[in-house]
Amino acid sequence: MNRTGTLLATALVSLILGTSGSTRAEVAVDLGIKEIYTNNLRKDSSDYEDWFTTRSVALKVYPLSTIEVSLGYDDAVYRKSNELNSVGGQASIGFVPTSEHSILSVYLESRLDLRYYHEDSRDNDNRGVHLSAVADFHPPVLPMSLRGGVIFSSSKYPRSDDLDKETVDLVGGLNWVFLGRNSLDIEAGASFATATFLDTLGYDTQKEERVVIFNHPYDLTTPDQLDGNLRMFSVSPRYSRPLDFLQSGLSILYSYQKICNIRRRFIQRPSQESLSPWVSIWEGWSIGFELKSYLVPRMIVTTGSTYWDKEYYSTLGANENSVWISDIVRMDLKRRTFLTLERPVTIDTDHVLKPTLTVDYTNNTSADPRYTYTDWSVTLSLSTTL
Amino acid sequence: MNRITFLIPLMFLALVLTPSLCYATDDGTVESLEPFVDLDGDGFNDNLDDSNGDGIPDRYSSTQQVAETVVEAIEDIFVLGNDPGSFITPEPSNCSVYGKLKFTVRGITAWRLGLDAGDSFGPESQGGGTGTHCVGGVCY
């Protein structure tokens, strides 16, 4: 991890030094650092507290007025959970081929990313490719806009290929302003992910638990494994408007998502479960609000609260010798509330420092007792663009 | 419970119908020459001017003391006067133009749905942005 981080940092510094000699070097550098405390890092009944620091730097180059090339580096260091330490690198190209005053806006992006973990979690090392093509149509005579697009993501785990994940999201939305300054935004999407399913379940009388039936001995390559697509449909309306008497803006958000092939189950590695891309697949609904205010001089105060009703997609745990399944379907009722205080500091006409403090509280009640928990977290962050 | 289920839609209707039929602010000034649009979902008009890029729209900074920056304050002590004609407006840089183009696609660069959306919630989930500031070809 240290060698890779050094290489990435060296490449970034070289690029900065290489371009800084240009008389019209169009370069921007984003810097960010966060210090986070949580009294429940794993978001379960273990109540395991920890501090961790994340740092990020991104170099953005503008070879043309329609293109942004970005190279980024970030790392995370934990005080106690050293096995979760990681470094990451990102490279992306964003392209806006349409003009500022066009009624059609198009955005194309391709991004590569890498993440390497501490030697105790190397199984979760991964690399990803993300491609998106999205467009927004906003006719001048109507107070509305239509948008849509397709997003492809592929995450590969060289040391744990059963974690590999490929998703395609088809998304669309409508934004409508009515009765002055009321805004209704409706977004809908269909998502597809490649996954490996196991359909056959039986009961092991000796272990007194449900297990997958294999040919003797336990064999994970039986025909019981089926490749297929996880399919999910989702829709989310959002209402927002300003509240002038409070110098604030209010938004109310509802979301609903449904998995369309619930009867099948798929394999997930149980170790370092929180790092698996398959750990948080759920269906259900949520409703919440956010209030953003400029009432306090020179500060941006944002607060909000959301309630979720979720049923997690049933997964299988697997190790070298057996496959097991929990009889308890994880169904959660979750409430989360946050308060953020941002105090931008203008250094000069072109530099703004943004220190931010966020306090976050979560209360989760689950049918699976392992996931009934509360969590307090405090985040202090500082970001700027040079 | 019946009273609550009756009151909630009534309160929502009152919120929607609260006078906002024009873009005039409480002090009579016009909020913005641009039409109202809220693609980033924070409740504010995305077209509000923010000349110093600190994330606080100018109309919410005008009632506050607009403090000079430290650099400007020092410069004002030592510079006896500036001839406006001596300033040459730099040509728009690629960075500043890209920032304006990126503003036009703020509604489509961040989606709240999808398999990877997770529990995105809070300011980071709003997405959007107003680009960067650039001077003389160097972007900040």
Short descriptors:
heterodimer; A: 386 residues; mainly beta; 16-stranded antiparallel barrel; two-stranded antiparallel sheet; 1 helix; 61% strand; disordered N terminus; B: 140 residues; mainly alpha
Describe the secondary-structure layout:
The complex is a heterodimer of chains A (386) and B (140).
Chain A: H1 2-20, E1 27-38, E2 50-64, E3 67-78, E4 86-95, E5 104-117, E6 126-137, E7 144-156, E8 165-178, E9 182-198, E10 202-204, E11 209-211, E12 225-243, E13 248-259, E14 265-268, E15 282-293, E16 300-312, E17 315-318, E18 323-324, E19 331-342, E20 345-348, E21 351-366, E22 373-385
Parallel strand pairs in A: 14-17
Antiparallel strand pairs in A: 1-2, 1-22, 2-3, 3-4, 4-5, 5-6, 6-7, 7-8, 8-9, 9-12, 9-14, 10-11, 12-13, 13-15, 15-16, 16-19, 17-18, 19-21, 20-21, 21-22
Chain B: H1 2-17, H2 58-61, H3 70-78, H4 94-104, E1 134-135, E2 138-139
Antiparallel strand pairs in B: 1-2
Strand order in space, largest sheet of chain B: 1-2
Number of strands of chain B: 2
Question: Could you say which overall geometry of chain A the principal axes of the C-alpha atoms support?
Answer: globular
The pair of chains with the biggest contact is: A-B, 102 and 68 residues
String of helices and strands of chain B: HHHHEE
Main sheet: strands, sense, barrel of chain B: 2 strands, antiparallel
**What spatial form of chain B do the alpha-carbon principal axes imply?**
elongated
Contiguous low-pLDDT stretches of chain A (5 residues minimum) are 1-6, 12-25, 213-223
Q: Roughly how many Å is the radius of gyration of chain A? A: 23 Å
- Count of DSSP-assigned helices of chain B: 4
Oligomer: heterodimer
Q: Major β-sheet of chain A, in short?
A: 16 strands, antiparallel, barrel
Helical content band of chain B: 25-40%
Low-confidence stretches of chain B: 21-30, 63-68, 120-140
Category from helices, strands and their pairing of chain A: mainly beta
Name the average pLDDT of chain B.
64
- What structural category do the secondary elements of chain B indicate? mainly alpha
Helix content of chain A: under 10%
- Radius of gyration of chain B (Å): 21 Å
What string, H for helix and E for strand, traces the elements of chain A in order?
HEEEEEEEEEEEEEEEEEEEEEE
